[in-house]
Amino acid sequence: MVNPLFIFLPLLSVAAGTDGPDPCVGRRIHIRSLPPRFNTDLLRHCGADAFPLADPSAAATSTPPCESLANHGLGPRTHPRSRSWYRTDARLLEAFFHRRILERDCLADDPADADAVFLPYYAALDALPYVLDPGLLDESARHGVALAEFLSRDQARILSRRHGHDHFLVVAGSAWDYAQSPSVEPRLWGSTSLLRLPELANFTFLTLESRTWPWQEHAIPHPTSFHPSSLGHLRAWLARARRSRRATLMLFAGGASRPSRPNIRGSILSECANRTDACVVVDCSGGKCAHDPVRYMRPMLRSKFCLQPPGDTPTRRSTFDAILAGCVPVFFEDLAARRQYGWHLPPVRYDEFSVHIPKEAVVFGGVRIVEALEAVPEEEVRRMRRRVLEMAPRVVYRRHGSTPELREAVKDAVDLAVDGVLQRIRRRTRALEDGLPERIYAQEEDSVDI
C-alpha cells in the first residue's frame, strides 16, 4: 500500500537579490499553517471503509483508493516505463496544488510581507463524510465550519488584515456541490454549504467548475492524466498529437446510456448510432475511463473533432483531454468552457480552436452535427488543430519537481491560476485601500490574457 502521507518540501522564502528589481514584487504568497486535520491527516483515511478515493463500483481498471495518493496526488504511473502519464484522481488536486505551491519562488514566511495567503485545506476530502455517510447528511452545513473557527481565533490578524480578500484555496469539484444553502431542509445529498459560510465569503475559491454569478469563484482546468516533468516530454507528446492521422470525423467519450427525455447527449448518441462511418463513441459509463487514459486518448488522437455536451453539470474533463490530444472541441453551450476558464483559455480566442453548435438547434432544430462538421474546410480544421495544441500547455498540470527548463518555458495550469489569483487580489486590495468597496464585488473581466 502506498504511504498516504506526503513528504512536502520545507517552506522557504525567497529573498530579493541585491542587484536589479525585486522579481517578487506583488507575487509573494504566504502558505497558512493549518493543523493536519485540515489536510494531511485526511490522507490517512484512504481505505474503502473510510473515505474512498475510488468508486468501488467502477470497472476493474479503477485505481485502488490508497494508490491514488502516489506521486503526491498524481496517482500511479499508467505503465512502469511511463514518464508523464498517471492514473490521476481529480479529488486529489488540492493536495497536488499544495505540493506545487510549496515549490514556488517568492514564498513569504511572514504573512505581513505577503500579497496573498494560500490555505492548504483539502476541502473535497473533508467533504467526503458528509456526502458518503447517510448518518451525517443533516450535518453537511457544517462543512468548513471548523476551518472558519480556527482562522478566526489563531493569529486572527492574518484574516482581519484584509478581511479575507487576500486568501485563496482550491476546491477539487464543482462549486455547485459546495453551495447548498445552510437553511435547506431536508438536506440535499451530495453537497455541502462550504461556499455559503459567511466567514469565508471574501476568499477566492479555485474550483473545477464555477457558477456564473458569484464573484469569489473562478474555474481552473480539470486535471488530465498527463503531467510532464521536462520540456522534452511535453514537446514529444505535442509532436505526436500534431502528426497523428485522423480518419474519424468526430468522437464522443462519456456515458453511453440513452436519456429518457430529449437532450443534446441523446441526440449525439442517436446520430452516432446512425453514422458509424463518421462518429466513434467511447463508452465511459460506470467510471470506466476515470483512471484509464489509454481508453480514450488513442481514439481522440485519431479524431478531428471531440464533442463536449453538458452532462449533470456544464463542464467536462473530456474537454481538456481533447485539447491535449489535438482533437478540436465542439461545444454546445457557452457554460461548458467559454464562461469558465478565462485565465487558461481566453474567451476571445475560442473561435480559433473550437466549434460552437447551439444545443437547441441540434435537439429541436434538426441540425445534424456530422453535416455541420463536414462543412468545415479541411484547411480550417488544420488551423484549429494548430491553435488547440498551442493552448494545450496552458491546461496541463506539470509534474512537481519538473526541470527548470520546463518551468521557464511554459506556464502551466497552476502557474496561470496563481497569476490570476494574484491579479484578482491586487484589484480587491486596491479597492479596499481606495475606499471603493463596490469595485471589490464587481464581476471581473476574464478575457485579458494572463
From TrEMBL:
Domain Exostosin GT47 stretches: 24-371
Alphabetical UniProt keywords: Glycosyltransferase, Golgi apparatus, Signal, Signal-anchor, Transferase, Transmembrane
InterPro entries (alphabetical): Exostosin, Exostosin_GT47
Span of the signal peptide: 1-17
Intracellular or extracellular location(s): Golgi apparatus membrane
Membrane topology category: Single-pass type II membrane protein
Phylogenetic classification of the source organism: Eukaryota, Viridiplantae, Streptophyta, Embryophyta, Tracheophyta
GO molecular function, one term: glycosyltransferase activity
Gene Ontology CC entries for this record: Golgi membrane
Coiled-coil positions: none
Main location: Golgi
Organism of derivation: Sorghum bicolor (Sorghum)
Name recorded for this polypeptide: Exostosin GT47 domain-containing protein
Family according to the record: Belongs to the glycosyltransferase 47 family.
